[in-house]
Specification:
14 helices; binds pyridoxal-5'-phosphate; alpha/beta; 12 strands
């Protein structure tokens, strides 16, 4: 077969007309600034239409398409259908609201397209500095180790992996979990996040070996029941292997008694891990210092930066007190990865010695830029602002006859429900679920929900730097208004 002339012409993914792309980039930037600056005038959430969903069923494109046309699709069919967490009336689950600077940082990191797996290049030093800052903020020694990860889930699971691979000098790492001939037991409160259970199952420890200890009225782990459970496991020759403390539970924001858990862990030789996905950094608030006592004595801490610190998704962190244990949980010898004395393959130890992934993006740039732009003191003030807004909401709820507060409010999470005397729980559950769905559909507010002691509750988590007190007031009015509407339709 004869080669056509064009077959010998080499291709690239770079544009032929750079100016055309530059103009489009300016247009995108204008749009993005408009979007974020005016987001409060938009609905929190818009249901993706059937037409939109249909669009995403098209076959894989084989031919090229003009980038401007693609961007028109993005503008019409993707950008309007946001999850809503950049909006001041978004209160669902635990989600950060992001920043415009985060958008810019992502662009810069993406332009460098550095892979932090290995090598001697700038991004590695930025990441080390960020990890160093986080150690300092949480009271961890500089000799500890850490890694920036995609979120709390993977940070928690990685921590548990370090604990497992450290057990008895790494015997499980070499010979597998069955070789130890004993049951490793994991203790945590019944309010613990499901990623811990995923982790225990992934690590081969088995969910039967999780002891979900009941909580007190404050939704903290019940220490007496924990002690009793440990005693009973020890009597049966099981190993108290891992104790998990929550620094902010997902349902109610409760902080477990971390110091007591740390003392218990030492007594039994168990690994003490803190899931601080939501609130580890609330330790920086002086008014919370007593509640966070002991957090720095944890063997490992996992926490998110994309939640309460508003770093644009994704950004989480794991810190491990003993860097040698952290390293020896993962290190491998590979001829294609060993470090050289000089050149690109020199540089600090590869992050792949401290976790599962090799290729990794430059997540730390957006953290590094944000910390300097805002200063830690601003984050402290913003967390306090949300905590005050939560307390304000709790007060408004308590003072309103049509509403009922369902849990004590310690942090930034409020669980409440629309209430009517004489209505049984199952009816109130239906009414409150309907209220939540209507708030979402109207694009007016986006709280989430949880079930507490069989009661469906409207759950408001305020990890939002855009929320104002007036938003809290309108949430309360909205709940009562929709609640009354639902009742009138019964
Ligand atoms: C969000 C959360 C997690 C999981 O973190 P991701 O960043 O979503 O993976 C774990 N624990 C708690 C308490 C959380 O709130």
């Amino acid at each position: 077969m004869k080669y056509r002339n064009s077959d010998t012409e080499e291709e690239t993914l770079d544009p032929q007309d750079w100016d055309h792309y530059k103009a489009l980039a300016h247009e995108m930037m204008e749009d993005v600034f408009d979007l974020i600056q005016n987001v409060s005038h938009q609905p929190v959430w818009i249901r993706p239409s059937d037409d939109v969903k249909e669009h995403f069923r098209a076959d894989v494109p084989l031919e090229e398409r003009e980038i401007n046309l693609i961007y028109q699709d993005v503008k019409q069919r993707i950008l309007p259908y946001r999850k809503g967490n950049i909006h001041p009336m978004f209160f669902s689950w635990v989600e950060g609201s992001g920043t415009i600077s985060g958008v810019l940082a992502d662009m810069l990191a993406s332009a460098m397209n550095s892979n932090l797996g290995i090598g001697d290049h700038g991004a590695i030093y930025v990441e080390h500095q960020v990890i160093g800052w986080l150690k300092q903020l949480l009271g961890y020694p500089s000799s500890s180790s850490g890694t920036i990860l995609g979120g709390g889930t993977i940070a928690n699971i990685t921590a548990m992996l370090v604990a497992r691979n450290s057990y008895k000098n790494g015997v499980i790492r070499r010979r597998g979990i069955k070789s130890i001939g004993e049951e490793l037991i994991v203790y945590c409160s019944a309010e613990t996040h499901n990623c811990i259970f995923k982790g225990v199952e992934t690590l081969g420890i088995g969910s039967d070996n999780i002891r979900k200890i009941p909580v007190t009225e404050a939704y903290q782990i019940d220490l007496e029941l924990l002690q009793r459970q440990i005693n009973s496991d020890v009597q049966q020759r099981h190993v108290p292997f891992l104790i998990i403390g929550n620094a902010g539970t997902v349902n109610t924001g409760a902080i477990d008694p971390l110091l007591e858990l740390s003392i218990l862990s030492k007594e039994y030789g168990a690994w003490f891990h803190v899931d601080g996905a939501i609130a580890a950094l609330a330790k920086l608030l002086p008014e919370f210092s007593s509640q966070f006592r002991g957090i720095e004595s944890a063997d490992s801490i996992a926490f998110d930066l994309h939640k309460w610190l508003h770093v644009n998704y994704e950004a989480g962190c794991l810190l491990v007190k003993d860097a040698d244990l952290h390293r020896s949980a993962f290190i491998q010898q590979s001829s294609y990865l060993f470090a050289h004395e000089r050149g690109l393959a020199a540089g600090p130890e590869s992050f792949s010695n401290f976790g599962l992934d090799l290729s990794r993006g430059f997540k730390s740039l957006k953290i590094w830029m944000a910390f300097q732009e805002n200063g830690i003191e601003k984050y402290v003030r913003l967390m306090r602002q949300n905590i005050k807004q939560a307390a304000y909401l709790a007060t408004l709820v308590s003072e309103n006859e049509s509403l009922e507060l369902l849990t004590p409010v310690t942090l930034n999470i409020v669980c409440y429900r629309f209430y009517r005397t004489g209505s049984p729980d199952n009816e109130l559950n239906r009414i409150n679920k309907e209220i939540v769905m209507r708030m979402h559909e109207q694009g007016a507010a986006a709280p989430s929900y949880t079930i507490l002691n069989g009661k469906y509750s409207i759950r408001v988590c305020i990890t939002n730097h855009r929320t104002r007190r007036e938003n809290i007031l309108s949430l309360v009015d909205l709940t009562v208004k929709i609640g009354n509407q639902v009742i009138s339709e019964l």
